[in-house]
Amino acid sequence: MQAAIVPVTPFQQNCTLMWCEETMEGAVVDPGGEIDRLLGIVDEQGIKLVKILVTHGHIDHAGGVADLAERLEIPIEGPHKDDKFWIDGLAEQGDRFGTGELARSFTPDRWLDGGDTVSFGNVILQVRHCPGHTPGHVIFFHEELRVAQVGDVLFQGSIGRTDFPKGDHDTLLASIRNELWPLGDDVTFIPGHGPTSTFGQERRTNPFVADG
């Protein structure tokens, strides 16, 4: 599997392109906006996008999902159904926060639960349900490559905000410790914003979730 991180929208959200090197089929995780730019990179890499994966329903992660799905006629998988209220309110989020683009709600072709898998080409990603930032947040993990796309659950040196509707600080901490840490300290993670890190590094240095 190959991956490319593409920061999009004024929020500089890490949209991630992932693709199978054998088949060149790929998926895009959290296309929050700038769809024309994303499609240009897809064409440059020779990727055939076959699905959209969504970690959670905030506008910077899901604002471009409906547009991209309609343009390419590809399915949407994720997030967990507990984020439906966020997705239903994407237009309102656009009015409130603004990304410079029109956001529309959508209905995923498949809601995801913890323990599910998603695939494209010969690539299989594990799904973990990690509520706290939002109630329906999920993350995607490639076991062989030891890489996870964690959305806004965890960042280098920080964690996701929990002051949004139905956010919960204690739930988020439990998600990190019970769903992420068991995957292994060697796992490199792609956060929803900012630079990559490893779970081991965060367990040692992150002031919110460091061991001890």
CATH architecture descriptor text: 4-Layer Sandwich
What is the subunit arrangement here?
A: single chain
Profile the largest sheet: 6 strands, mixed
The proportion of residues forming helix, as a percent range, comes to: 25-40%
Write out the strand line-up for the largest beta sheet, numbering strands in chain order: 6-7-8-9-12-13
Low-pLDDT runs: none
Order of helices and strands: EEEHEHHEHHEEEEEEHEEH
What name does CATH use for the topology? Answer: Metallo-beta-lactamase, Chain A
Radius of gyration: 16 Å
Portion of residues in beta strands equals 25-35%
| CATH top level class name | Alpha Beta
Question: Would you tell me the overall average pLDDT?
Answer: 95
Number of domains: 1
Give the CATH H-level superfamily.
Ribonuclease Z/Hydroxyacylglutathione hydrolase-like
Condensed summary:
With 212 residues, the protein is of the alpha+beta class. Helices cover 26% and strands 27% of the residues.
Question: What would you say this structure looks like, in words?
Answer:
The protein has 212 residues and is an alpha+beta fold. It has a single domain, classed as 4-Layer Sandwich (Metallo-beta-lactamase, Chain A). It has seven helices and 13 strands. It has helices spanning 35-45, 59-62, 65-72, 84-88, 90-97, 169-180, 199-205; strands at 2-8, 13-19, 25-29, 48-53, 76-77, 117-120, 123-129, 138-142, 147-151, 154-155, 158-159, 188-191, 197-198. Strands 6-7-8-9-12-13 form a six-stranded mixed beta sheet. It has a five-stranded mixed beta sheet with strand order 1-2-3-4-5, covered by helices on one side. A two-stranded antiparallel ribbon has the order 10-11. The longest helix is centred in the C-terminal third of the chain and has 12 residues, at 169-180. The mean pLDDT is 95.
